[in-house]
Fold this sequence. Notes:
Strand order of the largest sheet: 2-1-24-23-22-21
Oligomer: single chain
Helix content: 40-55%
Number of helices: 19
Radius of gyration: 35 Å
Shape: elongated
Largest sheet: 6 strands, antiparallel
Strand content: 15-25%
Distance between the termini: 40 Å
Amino acid sequence: MKKLRIVLLSVMVAVLLLPTLVAAGTPYGTYTYSSEGKMLASPTAYVPDMIIDSAYMGLELAFDEPRDIFIGPDDKLYVADTVNNRIIVCDRYYKFQFEIKEFVNEFGVPDSFNKPSGVFVNEDYIYVCDTDNDRIVKFDINGNYVRIIKRPESNLFEDGDFYKPIAVAVDQYGRLFVVSSATYQGIIVINDNADFFGFIGATKTVDTSLESIFSEFLTDAQKENQQDNVSTEFNNITIDDQNFVYVTTSSLDATKVEDAIKAKSTSGDWAPVRKLNANGVDVLKRNGFYPPSGEVSFVNATAGQKTGGASTIVDVAIGPEGTWSIIDSSRSKVFTYDENGNLLFAFGDLGNQTGNIELIGGIVYQGDKILCLDKANDNIVVFRRTEYGDLLMTALEHNNARMYDLSIDDWTEVLKRNNNFDSAYVQIGRSLFRQGKYEEAMEYYKSSYEVASYSEAYNEIRKEWASTYFWIIPVILVAVFLLFVKFLGYTKKVNTRAALKIGRKTLKEELLYAFHVIFHPFDGFWDLKHEKRGSIRSALTILIVTVVVYFYNSIGQGWIFSPHISYANVFGSITAVVAPLLLWVIANWCLTTLFEGEGTMSDVFIACCYCLTPLILLIFPSTLLSNVLLQSEGTVLTLLNTLAYIWLGILLIIGMMSTHDYSVGKNILTCISTIVGMAFLMFLGILFTTLVGKIVMFIVQIVEEIAYRL
């Protein structure tokens, strides 16, 4: 009984603790992604250092729903304490200095904030987004009131528009870039006098062709009631030392964002973070394996279930050496990128374990530290950079200073600690490329599946080879052309002699006749059947050669066009060629009883095999060329492969018409019916296989049951 009571007590404790364990989240850790989107564990770049709350700062009145944090040029910490209607100012060690809460405006009237949501500080002034008062208030660096910047006036604002500033950034010329939560036209650009300069960075809207056509038939009343297709609003903003404005939005269509990430799009149309120049043009570099949008994996690899969808990006911060970070409020994660859009590391998770944040709401850099606002717990979590993080920053510093020898050493040290870090391989490859060490660079590009850069390095090697042996290329091309012309002349002589020959043709004559068939299909297929110019043995030979060509194509393509390791086998190539061929032959022959076709099954099979000849002639050289062409020249391979299949299709149609002696219309109908018949045969095959599998399983279970009973 005592043991039973202990067990019951343990179960009760586990049940009581279960919600806490679930809320705790996964342990804090740092990770990155491979070029294939696989999450990889990474050495920790930032670790939790301390938690700053009201008590630590020395505040008498505790935080209540803080919405923004900022580190000024003097390293002081500024916090927008929204519900308490104040701005908290702390020193670099996060100790309270003063607060901005009540002030006297220029009219001598006492004034105060109403739900301030954003704060920005430069060397001279403090700018506060007084959200529910529809204004921005400007103070000097000591917290003394300077002026109120009211809502700008312009006919570009639509009637009934609300002005709710929630974030602001100021450039070195004194221009204010304002994010209004109720404004969808873009970022509002004004000056201290609230003079309106315009909107920049409005997100792109997309009307489908059907919507555009449909709208032409709507009445004016229907158009008024129709939902407008408008840009989405932004939610946060910051600015770097070169006056580039970084803005974030979480109002985009999540499905569109996911599609852009999966397609590895470099366009900013569906990007949750953008970098705008003075003209409002998005100049953010998206040269990483995936566009910088936070999470890139939306399916659990083991469970196959969707996990959360696209990230909800709510803030962005500028770090050292061109790095920048965004935060995902739906996962409470921080994603850090370099200036080219390569993901350096990501960390964080939902929960209350050490290093995790329940509801992340803001991020800012303070030297080698990152401060994250936890809106759920009304505190700030400070993360300090580790030795691994210092090594990353040093490598980027040497890269930016064009000290490539040193950067190679730095990235090599990074790889010693994290050999799965694909970006390090890319950076070493680029440093070697700049030094003219192209072959070494190619090896590093190959390790990270960086096809575009690999192609550039290979282009330099090819240029060097071509400049040395420039005379060989035209000689080879002319020689190949002359040999092919001579071979065609030889096949013509053999085919002419074979046409006058009485009796069975040799295998060589039957195989060479394939060249007459593909260039003269109408009389070629007629003689193939009626003059017995082909046979089952020659058809099987062509089929086997086609399988070999397919197998070579699967293993012999150049790395640029087939970068991922392929475990191809000859059985896969056999299936890829033989299965559709047999389905076509069987379906077509079965239909001849309905459409009065004159060809036998062997006639159909022989004709179909001879139709495969263009695949041999074009796919084989295409495979060879893939080893010498650049990525930008891949259209040549696409052209050859497309031409091969089009040629095959034309020969197949003509071959069936000649074999069955059909008219054009009847032949087209038969071919369409053959495709339908192939689908039906596949369905029957799957159904039969499934049924046989269940019967076998049933028999096995009966045998196991009998064995168990005996």
